[in-house]
Specification:
about 290 residues; alpha/beta; TIM Barrel; two-stranded antiparallel ribbon; globular
Length: about 290
Amino acid sequence: MTRPLVAIQQIQIGTVTSTEAQARETLGALVAAGFAGIELNSFQTQPTPWVVRALTKAAGMPAGRGGRLDWHAILADFPLRVVAIHEALGTIEADTDAVISRARRFGTMHVVVTGMYRFDYSDLREVESLAQRLNAAGRRLGNAGLRLLYHNHNVEFRKVAPGINAFDVLIEGTDPASVNFEVDCFWAATAGVDPLALMRRLGGRVELCHLTDRGSRRTGSSMTPIDKLDSVELGLGNMDIPALIAQASEAGAAAVVLETHKNWIDGSPVRSAEVSAEVLRRHLVQAR
């Protein structure tokens, strides 16, 4: 059984990496907390149109303005391995060489595609077509020694036929030699799916694992006896974090990637990461 790296998704620290000084301070705090890896996003490591930042913020994940920084130079001064870089599928298809160059420059073998923008996951034919597009992109990246992974949100678990959801189609329609998965446990749970059962089903196709706990935090007086569910730090929600970490280790995942994208302790993404890092370190040691 391998021990995955303790890593963090760049989206969590977008609001505290808008300047080089701020980025260096934040990365130093993460290293001190025990993080050994980071997962980057293309739209946060190069200049990005304002509309992309606005859409990301509207989804509850503020990206910050760090796309103007030289992340390659900054990361060279920290012991943080780049475990993956997120890219749009359209970008991979239109400019494969540029994506390969970015991944190589950051020293990572994983390129990750997330849920498609303005895509109908309830349309069986559309999802089947997506699986074939992923296969084709994965083969092109594979020829350069890179691995293509698909990262789920909750929308992939919409039904496309009786008893079949879109993620079933992506699992069955993609070739493990070309496409595998970065399972986001929080979003699967939000869709009503057991993330542990999902990871067990995928087995070794889980090459990266995203972890965010799911629970509620009181932020003011409660008007009703029902709290709003949201992301919380690891160990403060109701997901079986130790079992998920153990399964990621069993699958041989390269990293367990923290992504608590909002609702942070004290409003601080760094403080939030520090709390979760202690849980990650403790259970990853036990999973060895």
